[in-house]
């Protein structure tokens, strides 16, 4: 991956430029992020606009996130969006069905260790993430709620407990036997660390792109196996 000299991040105060960090520096800042205790503010700006929603009580690595800093001021958080897209050689309906099977998503997203749909509330699912980066083994879990889908256009979800994040998969028809699939993953970080999350964006998006490439191969093989002999 090419070294980024600087990255831009848009927030309520406008665009800010940050120098890119070396892996060693990023590692230190990631450890600092894990030690922060904060809770999202009532109004959350996003990296591409604003959202007025408020999340409930949150935790990071199992640590409860409080609403204020030591001096009594409230942490302000921003949403960092990361997206990737791929062309898939299967009918849109096949791609849709595969993503709608929430527990099967980790077949092409190996950093998602497991997804367990709640038996008593099938609109909720428990996600567990495991990933190694910069010499650190990261593990997070969260409870996500399925949001109302737009049939054959959009599947999306949002965490309701645990690591604050949200995701969306959008589908674009290309013809009777192909479609485009776009994956967007967004996560919430304290505004003071927005430069770090922006510097990490190319890494995150390369991971998502690799996931979608795996999905394209998986979907193609799945479609071939389902064809009548």
Automatic annotation (TrEMBL):
It comes from the Eukaryota. It holds the Pfam family Polyketide_cyc. CDD domains: SRPBCC_8. InterPro entries: COQ10_START (IPR005031), ORF3 (IPR047137), START-like_dom_sf (IPR023393). Residues 88-215 form the Coenzyme Q-binding protein COQ10 START domain. This is Coenzyme Q-binding protein COQ10 START domain-containing protein.
